[in-house]
Every structure is written in structure tokens, then in C-alpha cells.
User: Fold Acetyl-coenzyme A synthetase from Octadecabacter temperatus.
Amino acid sequence: MPKTYPPSAKTIANAHITAENYGPMYEQSINDPDTFWGEHGKRVDWIKPYTKVKNTSFEPGNVDIKWFEDGTLNVSANCVDRHVETRGDQTAIIWEPDDPNTTESMHITYAELQVHVCKMANILQSLGVSKGDRVVLYLPMIPEAAYAMLACARIGAIHSIVFAGFSADALGARINGSDAKVVITADHAPRGGRSTPLKSNADAALLHCKESVKCLVVKRTGEQTTWTDRDYNYNDMLLEADDYQKPQEMNAEDPLFILYTSGSTGQPKGVVHTTGGYLVYASMTHQYTFDYHDGDVFWCTADVGWVTGHSYIVYGPLANGATTIMFEGVPTYPDAGRFWEVCAKHKVNQFYTAPTAIRALMGAGNEWVEKHDLSDLRLLGSVGEPINPEAWNWYNDVVGKGNCPIVDTFWQTETGGHMLTPLPGATTLKPGAAQQPFFGVKPVVLDPQSGDVVHGNDVEGVLCIGDSWPGQMRTIYGDHERFEKTYFGDYAGYYFSGDGCKRDEDGDYWVTGRVDDVINVSGHRMGTAEVESALVAHVAVAEAAVVGYPHDIKGQGIYAYVTLMNNQEPSDELRKELEKWVRAEIGPIAKPDLIQWAPGLPKTRSGKIMRRILRKIAEDDFGALGDTSTLADPSVVDDLIENRMNGS
Ligand code: WTA
Assistant:
């Protein structure tokens, strides 16, 4: 029996949620959601209070999700204005630059944040952006990214953030996908001592977009960029911009943002989150999961290009009046002590990162941690993929010194906030398990083949959710049918997460990883189909199949089987060329770790690629190949096994 960790008396004494109140609150949240959320919905300020709470249906053909549907509010008023009245001089955002030796960190108070957000809102309005319009953000991790998010929320525009690590092509597709009016970018993005030319990527992307799309350019490094007719200089416009603007009254179900994410088929889809339910859920999970209290300094190391940055750098913490850190850099620059140096410098109380970073820093050695004073840390969090017990133990012993509960939070872009997570004052921790549902979340384990509900404990299956919660995505932008098919098509009446899970003998949940063709590389979610379509777009490639394989640091690596055109010879140059090609098509995060030349791919007689077999070969698990007799040409498998690539 692996060791478990009950909450300490000290943690329980201060905690919002303890073992005593978790049970009754959870029961009410499931059995009487109208009363539970009717009460907890009041944690945000409403312009017109709601009279209806939950109106949701997971019925096939009629999936419809509405929360607080007759209430009105503004997210920027909730994240900024209401705190200016009570804590205007408190730091809202601490900005920590990529290079601490050349650039100072910045503290932005709530009163200052209001001015920045209002000016940005006025600038966007002067560019013709109004309620319901889409604005794409392609920015480094600088305060202007938060200003822009909140400015959009203030005027009712819908933001769609594209991670600065995505290529020009990926950016262009997302600008067109949401028919955006404006793109906000910066000259360059410094990261880990390197610099990405964001503006020139945006220029390349915009070549494929409507001429009317405007580009607002923020100065970050001051490096030279070209200027075109569609460009607007943010720093110049700031000088003229008015420093107040009244927040728009938004309906609870008006969209707040679109965020593209990868699925098992096709191109990334635009996940739509709305205003009221999302904010209630992001702020409540932030407060309870991290046991956040007034005056705490909270650091989530994610990028605002991912959902984690939306919910736990910007919306959750700021709705709660927290001090939140925005970090521009990477864990290992200028050295492997950077995270811990920042924790010490800003006296961080809650620290939230991904297992891939923990594993990389564990490999760098304990001395990097021990150099820094981490005595203000009270809680540690993990997100993005299952955390292996070795990394959990290191995080607990070396970083937390045995004094900080670890919350292993399972959730998704689609869920808006935490779904399964320990609560620090209530849960006896089990390394590697996300353990318990958050309030309002009804996990259900289904048999993957029959779709039957698996009852009892010590069972396995696929993870579904039985009813709606306020932070749930509402639709896929412009394609509600795809939304229904993707999430409600496999198991009627349930939201299907795409993950496998087990419920152990105590009723705790362990998420075991994706059961579809989504892989998780360094905590970044990637559809194998996207990488495949990038590869086959190269002239030398006839066919490609991409799978994940276990990788010591990244969690999963990208393994590509590539069949070349008849006239092409395999070579190391071509391999490099294909890597470069995928970087350009999608971005550096999608670069295959291993490319195997495959004279043929295992296919059924009807021509379907048998990915199960390719996964097993990549995982070096030949014993479990299963039945290969249905293959059109079983001999291709022998060739693939013989020439398997090695790496980790
Ligand atoms: C995986 C990130 C195990 C899971 C917030 C999910 C996890 C996907 C955990 C969503 C965790 C995230 N334990 N697996 N604590 N957290 N995942 O949309 O496979 O980028 O479906 O959201 O990450 O990734 P996404």
C-alpha cells in the first residue's frame, strides 16, 4: 500500500473546505444544484441578478447548456473594478520577465490595472471592435496580454488567444476560423534567452486573411519590425487613449472567449466559454482547490495561450482579488533554479505547474531548490497530465519540505476549471491520483465497449461526466453539431472526457490518460491527426501515421511513421527537413521526436490504419500487438518492428 498523506492540523485549521464540510456541500451540489449554485453564483457581482440557475440538457440531438441565463454582469468589472474600491493599492499582477539580469519585474496594482484595461478597451474600440466581435491575441507573457483579455471582456468582444509558440500558418487558420477583426501582437517574444519574431509571424499569417483585419502591435523588445498599412502602434495610441470606459452589461451566456484545442480528428476546434458560469467556476475552484486566502501570492507557471493561463493566471485569481504572477520565461533560464528564485523573490504562497517541468527540474538536482528560501510556500499544484509518483515525491519532499499539500488537478480546456482534485484541507493525498470531484461534478465510469455504467469501487473504464457544471464549454465555435458529436456522441447522455480512469477501492479517481488520438507532449495537448496532415502536406511524403510514446521528461513524445513517395530516398537530411516543416506548419511543440521510415503502414483490408499496432511498436511493447491477422499485409509489421527508432 503506497504511503498516503492526511492534511495536517495546520492546513485544516485555515482551510475553506475540510473533510466535514466537503461531504455535505458535495451532496447538495449534485442533488440540488439550483440551490447550491444559486448561492455560490453570488460570489461574483451581477448587474442584474439571475432568477434562473441551471438549465442544461445532455440529451442526444438537443445538447444545450445554460447557467444563470437571465443574469447580467461584466467580467472585467468583476476582476478589476470591484477590487479598486476595496484594495486599489494592492498588487494585482506581478510580472516577472524572461531575463532577470536585464529587465526588472513589475508590480501592477488593481487601480493601475483598471487604467491599463480601460485604455486598451478604448484603443480596441477605436479600431472598430464592438460587442460580439472576435479579437485574436498572439502575445508574449506580458501584462498587455492580461490587459487585452480584460479589455475584450469589458467591451464584450470575444478573445481567442493563440500561444506564441504556434507558427504563422496555425495563427492564420485561427484568425480566419473566428473571423477576427483585430490581431494583437508584439514585436518579439523573449523566452528562455531566445526571441521569437511574433510580428513577422503575424505578418505572414495575415497574408492569408481578409484585408480588413487590423494588427495592433505592442512594443516588447523594441527590435526592428516591418510596418504595413494594417498595423497600429499600441504604444503611440496609449498616449491618446482615455483612461476610463464603462463596462458593458453582458448576459451570463454571452461568449467570453474562444480557445482552440486539439481533438482526435481533424483540425483544432474553437472551444467556447461564456461569461457567468465560467467566472463563477474559475473563481471558486481557484479559491477552494488552492485554499487561496486574501493577501496570498499565487503563481501559476502556465502561459495564457492555454486554458490553465486563462482560468488560473487571469480570471480566477483576479476575480478573487488575488496577487497573481505572470512569468514570461521558462523553468531553466538563466538556470535550473529560476522557478525557486521567483518563488523566494515574490514570497509565493501557492505554486502551480506541470509534471513535465517537475521532472525536468528533478533531473537538474536538489541544489537548485535548496539555494532558495521557499518558506512562504503553503501549497503545490500539478496539472496537464498524470504525475508519476517519483515526481510527486520529489515535489513533496524537496520543494514542499513535507509541509505543502499537493493538489493534482485533472481538468481540460473544455471544462473551464478543475474537475477532479484533492482539496488541501479535506483530502488524504495519494501520489498520482486526482482523487475527488469538485463541487457540482458527477464523474461516471463507463465500460468503453458497452457504454454501461460501471458501479462500485476498484473498477476501470472511460471517464464521463453525468451532468453539467457551470464552467463547462457551451459549444464549438460555429459548429454545434461537431460539439454534440465530439463530446456527447459516444455515450448518450454523458459528457465524454476522452480519458480513461480507474476508481480505486476507496472511491478515489486516477486518470490514466487519453483513450483517443490525442497525445500530451510536455503538458501540451496535440492531435496526432494535425501532425499527420502537416507531414503529408510535404511533397516527399506519401503517407504518415503519428502516435505517442512514453518519454521520461515530456510524458509523451511524438513518434511519426512516414511513408515516402516512390521517387524519394530516406536520408537524415530529409528527416531534418520534415522536422523543420512541421515546426513551420504548426509550431515547435509539434516537432516529431522520432521519425521512422515506413515502407508500408499496417492497414485493415478496408484500408484503415491500425494505430493500436503502431502505438505498441512505438511503446516497445511487441508482446501485446494483438491480432494482426486482419491486416491486409501482415508482413509490414515485421519491418516496422525491425527498424523501430529508439529514444526517450
Ligand atoms: C490531461 C489542461 C491526468 C488529460 C488543463 C486531459 C491530466 C488533458 C491532468 C486536457 C491530471 C490534465 N492528471 N491527466 N491532473 N490534467 N490532464 O485541454 O488527458 O490542455 O484530457 O487542459 O490533459 O488538456 P488541456
Notes: The domain at 74-274+300-330 is CATH 3.40.50.12780 (Rossmann fold). The first strand starts at residue 54 and ends at 57. The chain has a mean pLDDT of 96. Residues 261, 306-308, 383-386, 408-413, 434, 497-499, 511, 513-514, 520, 525 surround WTA (CB under 6 Å).
